[in-house]
Amino acid sequence: MNISDILSLECVTLDIDCHSKKDALDILAKTIAGSDKATSQIEVFDCLCARERLGSTGLGNGIAIPHGRLKNSKKTIAAFLRLEDGVDYDAVDKVSVDLIFALIVPEDSTDEHLQTLATLAGMFSDKKIISQLRKARSSAEIFSILIS
């Protein structure tokens, strides 16, 4: 699985003024739904929130990977959001989250879902990549970092 298979440049947004985890999830849901007309913003938002109720997807170090399986989804879709300031995300280390990579997969894509999460967790454990994402000046630069 390559990140370029699930993430498009139009789904990379940076320096968003956001004040809560809920706001961030809403922005991500809108972004994902906007890139796939067959996907509903409300369904994506509800899916991401349902997963968060099971436990925070805040990994620590200012990073979160909200994700979920969507019943009517035909393909895996991702969105990346870099916030202007971090928000309280109930992360394991209690650090505010400013880098968020959201992932929606079809309901029956268990293996793909787990493989993608493992790839993302590995990428976001690399301090060099995290630093580059925080210093990037454009969506195109962030997209390039994420797909390399």
Structure description:
By secondary structure, the chain is α/β, with parallel strands linked by helices. The chain has one domain: Mannitol-specific EII, Chain A, CATH 3.40.930. Helix content is 41%, strand content 24%. The protein has 5 helices and 6 strands, in the order βααβββββααα. Strands 1, 2, 3, 4, 5 and 6 form a 6-stranded mixed β-sheet that branches. α1 (21-35) packs across α2. The longest helix has 15 residues, at 21-35. The protein is globular and about 35 Å long. 38% of the residues are buried. The model has no long low-confidence stretch (mean pLDDT 93).
CATH first level: which class?
A: Alpha Beta
Query: Total domains, how many?
Result: 1
Kindly, what is the distance between the CA atoms of the first and last residues, rounded to a whole number of angstroms? Answer: 12 Å
The CATH H-level homologous superfamily: Mannitol-specific EII, Chain A
- In percent, how much strand structure appears in the residues? 15-25%
Q: Predict the CATH topology.
A: Mannitol-specific EII, Chain A
Sheet of most strands = 6 strands, mixed
Q: Percentage of helical residues?
A: 40-55%
- Low confidence ranges: none
Alpha carbon gyration radius: 14 Å
What is the H/E string?
Answer: EHHEEEEEHHH
Mean pLDDT: 93
- Structure summary, number of beta strands: 6
- Classification by helices and strands: alpha/beta
Number of helices: 5
Shape summary: globular
CATH architecture tag: 3-Layer(aba) Sandwich
